[in-house]
């Protein structure tokens, strides 16, 4: 959000707020009915009642059903405060009360990697007793779904990870997915979705009034994966100076190979040591004002801005590059922005749900993949004394250490303000690398230092349930790039179906508009890791009202001319904050090249005694298939360690 937007006086703001419907009762403002959340607020001094108030339970069923909660989700209030006390304030706790519970395996983190670790371990040890401990009120980590019931029929959207990038899968991942019932060709068939480039409608660029002086919607138009010829035809509509328009048009229409006069070293320098923004200014000769329009194009896809990506990395993002490197611009226009992917209607939450059902069959009925999307999970069955495998939510692990005899591990965690201690033969840390040095201080210093290197990239994903897509249909858009706004992009969520869930593009009922991106650092000159920390701080400081005002303003300005009424046409809002989002992958402009085996993630993931390390960070790549491969490696590490200690 731009800081210079608040020059209107307070009276104007409150008038504008009324027009936007900020005073309207929508689902997230329902009064708190979930006692467990109220008790979290009372137990944790860092959380105000107001924050918990933004965290309602499912008002349609009045039941504890985390996927249908609206308000602040993702990293929700109550999930992260203890971890932050430990990591930021250096707080330590006295040893917890030993509950006497003992397991073969305890997994820290209930994301895809943690769930897959439990799955792989059980494969090796079919009668093993396993406990998965997760600090959020729902399982899946980033693989969360947002359920909406406010318009009648259930409508789904992604709360975090969306697609399966199956062309990149290893044999191991293919085998794993087949075992849990995922059929990629079936998923591809049911996926008619391309991130705002879909159906009868097209992509757009929305220039907002607060940033650019007036609301302008350029349709069809985009900077990524879009025909350069069509883009050139739209530039006259852009709210920038004539000089900037001319420079941008000249760049887009240029057909050359600027490498012709360069040495190999110069080409390398340009491709790997120049940011995309600097590249288009220096080699594309666009003005700084025109270049600024591209800054947020890579926010969602990479978790970093186009200032932070090299030219080589930006090629993958479908940005205009190849036409001045002797490439074929048609290729760019034909490229699908989302790449070749397969999807469930709730994204990779279905992978998490399939895994949980395999591990704890009593949690829901059904056993086919065809019914997983509509299956209702009974969360009270996740953690039962008689289960062989349990999943314990709302619990933050604060210490993992070997017992004196080195044959087992003690694990301490905080739940409901109590510190509890349990014991396990093995432990898999499937949480983030950056928290591992705090919860496992006995690791070698070199390993802890390596784990600290990876700072996850924050991401924000806000779902707004609209009464219908009528205004978007009138305007002919299914999504838009928003260069001036907090979320760099938004798109309608339709067209991903399953045998038990239908929502195609002809449906004229309620539909989620998903807003997607990352919050830009509010200071210049920061390193990439400082940018992530700055973005994370802002993300956690903003209130629900800030996010609500932001998405209402965008919808009002973008769809208002086609009759959209922000006061009446918004049914619910769910803000998924991911301050620890994408795993840290190494970028040309920010990271050195590491010798084989010497990269931070390779050092950080080494097993130590009876403790192994999974999570996408361990593969330095933010993908579901990486999280699965790393779970497999971590469980194999435990087996190897056991063999060598015999
Ligand atoms: C918004 C978003 C969109 C994405 N989209 C895609 C996509 O479309 N396709 C794709 O392949 N990948 C995508 N990803 C990448 C995604 O991170 C991986 O695919 C994968 O889900 C990571 O799983 P994980 O188990 O390694 O980590 P996580 O999902 O982060 O799970 C780790 C879990 O451990 C918990 N934890 C941490 N510390 C503790 C503690 N001390 N005690 C207890 N629990 C703890 C965390 O809260 C978390 O729930 C996306 C990520 C984000 C954030």
- How large is the count of helical segments? 24
Number of strands: 19
What is the mean pLDDT? 90
CATH 4th-level superfamily of the largest domain? FAD/NAD(P)-binding domain
Assign an overall shape.
Answer: globular
Rg calculated over all Cα atoms: 25 Å
Tell me what portion of residues adopts beta-strand conformation: 15-25%
Low-confidence segments, given as residue ranges, are 1-6, 29-62
Query: How many distinct domains?
Result: 3
User: Any guess at the CATH architecture of the largest domain?
Assistant: 3-Layer(bba) Sandwich
Q: Measure the end-to-end span.
A: 58 Å
**CATH domain topology of the largest domain:** FAD/NAD(P)-binding domain
Helicity, in percent? Answer: 25-40%
Oligomer: single chain
- Under CATH at level 1, the class of the largest domain stands as Alpha Beta
Report the sheet with the most strands, covering strand number, pairing sense and barrel closure: 7 strands, mixed
Bound molecules: flavin-adenine dinucleotide
Can you give a write-up of this model?
- By secondary structure, the protein is an alpha/beta fold.
- The protein has 3 domains: 1-30 and 192-222 and 456-582, Polyamine Oxidase, Chain A, domain 2, CATH 3.90.660; 84-142 and 344-454 and 589-645, FAD/NAD(P)-binding domain, CATH 3.50.50.60; 223-334.
- Helices cover 33% and strands 17% of the residues.
- It has 24 helices and 19 strands.
- Strands 2, 3, 10, 11, 12, 13 and 19 form a 7-stranded mixed sheet that branches. The protein has a 6-stranded mixed sheet with strand order 1-18-14-17-16-15. The chain has a two-stranded antiparallel sheet with strand order 4-5.
- The radius of gyration is 25 Å and the shape is globular.
- It binds flavin-adenine dinucleotide.
- Flavin-adenine dinucleotide binds at residues 83, 108-114, 133-136, 141-143, 160-163, 165, 396-397, 430-432, 435, 439, 459, 461, 578, 581-582, 615-616, 622-624, 627.
- Flavin-adenine dinucleotide is lined by residues 83, 108-114, 133-136, 141-143, 160-163, 165, 396-397, 430-432, 435, 439, 459, 461, 578, 581-582, 615-616, 622-624, 627.
């Amino acid at each position: 959000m731009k800081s210079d937007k608040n020059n209107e006086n307070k009276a104007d703001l409150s008038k504008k707020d009324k027009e936007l419907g900020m005073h309207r009762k929508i689902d997230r403002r329902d009064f708190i009915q979930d006692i467990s959340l109220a008790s979290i607020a009372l137990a944790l001094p860092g959380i105000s009642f107001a924050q918990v108030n933004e965290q309602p339970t499912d008002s349609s069923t009045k039941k504890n059903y985390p996927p249908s909660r609206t308000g602040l989700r993702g990293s929700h209030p109550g999930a992260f405060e203890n971890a932050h006390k430990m990591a930021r304030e250096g707080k330590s706790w006295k040893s917890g009360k030993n509950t006497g519970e003992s397991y073969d395996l305890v997994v820290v983190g209930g994301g895809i990697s943690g769930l897959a670790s439990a799955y792989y371990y059980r494969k090796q040890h079919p009668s093993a007793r396993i406990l998965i401990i997760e600090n959020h009120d729902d399982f899946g980590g980033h693989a969360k779904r947002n359920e909406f019931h406010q318009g009648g029929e259930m409508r789904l959207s992604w709360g975090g990870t969306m697609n399966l990038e199956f062309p990149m899968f290893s044999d191991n991942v293919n085998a794993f997915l087949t075992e849990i019932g995922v059929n990629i060709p079936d998923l591809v068939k049911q996926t008619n979705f391309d991130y705002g480039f879909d159906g009868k409608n097209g992509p757009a660029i929305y220039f907002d009034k607060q940033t650019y002086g007036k609301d302008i919607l350029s349709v069809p138009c985009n900077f990524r994966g879009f025909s350069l010829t069509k883009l050139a035809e739209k530039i006259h509509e852009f709210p920038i100076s004539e000089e900037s328009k001319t420079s941008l048009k000249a760049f887009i229409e240029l057909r050359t190979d600027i490498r012709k006069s360069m040495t190999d070293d110069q080409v390398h320098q340009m491709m790997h040591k120049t940011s995309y923004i600097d590249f288009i200014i220096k080699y594309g000769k666009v003005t700084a004002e025109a270049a600024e329009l591209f800054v947020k194009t890579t926010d969602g896809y990479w978790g970093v801005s186009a200032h932070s990506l090299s030219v080589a990395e930006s090629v993958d993002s479908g940005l205009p590059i190849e036409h001045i490197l002797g490439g074929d611009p048609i290729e760019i226009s034909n490229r699908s922005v989302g790449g070749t992917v397969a999807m469930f209607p709730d994204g990779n939450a279905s992978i998490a749900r399939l895994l949980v059902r395999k591990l704890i069959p009593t949690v829901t009925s059904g056993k086919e993949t065809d019914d997983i999307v509509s299956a209702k999970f009974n969360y009270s069955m996740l953690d039962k004394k008689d289960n062989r495998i349990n999943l314990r939510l709302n619990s933050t692990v604060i210490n993992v250490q070997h017992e004196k005899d080195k044959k087992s591990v003690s694990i301490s965690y905080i739940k409901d303000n109590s510190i509890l201690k349990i014991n396990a033969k093995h432990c898999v840390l499937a949480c983030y690398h950056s928290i591992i040095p705090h919860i496992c201080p006995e690791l070698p210093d070199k390993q802890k230092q390596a784990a600290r290197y990876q700072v996850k990239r924050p991401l924000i994903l806000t779902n707004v349930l609209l009464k219908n897509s009528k205004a978007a249909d009138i305007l002919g858009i299914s999504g838009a790039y928003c260069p001036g706004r907090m979320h760099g992009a938004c798109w309608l969520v339709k067209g991903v179906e399953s045998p038990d869930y239908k929502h195609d593009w002809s449906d004229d009922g309620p539909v989620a508009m998903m807003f997607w991106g990352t919050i830009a650092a509010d200071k210049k000159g920061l390193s990439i890791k400082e940018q992530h920390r700055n973005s994370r701080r802002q993300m956690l400081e903003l209130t629900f009202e800030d996010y609500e005002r932001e998405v209402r303003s965008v919808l009002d300005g973008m769809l208002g001319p086609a009759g959209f009424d922000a006061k009446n046409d918004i049914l619910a809002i769910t803000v998924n904050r991911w301050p620890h989002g994408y795993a840290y992958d190494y970028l040309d402009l920010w990271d050195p090249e590491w010798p084989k085996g010497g990269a931070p993630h390779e050092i950080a993931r080494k097993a130590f005694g009876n403790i192994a390390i999974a999570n996408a960070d361990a593969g330095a790549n933010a993908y579901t298939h990486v999280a699965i491969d790393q779970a497999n490696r971590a469980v194999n590490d435990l087996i190897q360690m056991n063999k060598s200690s015999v």
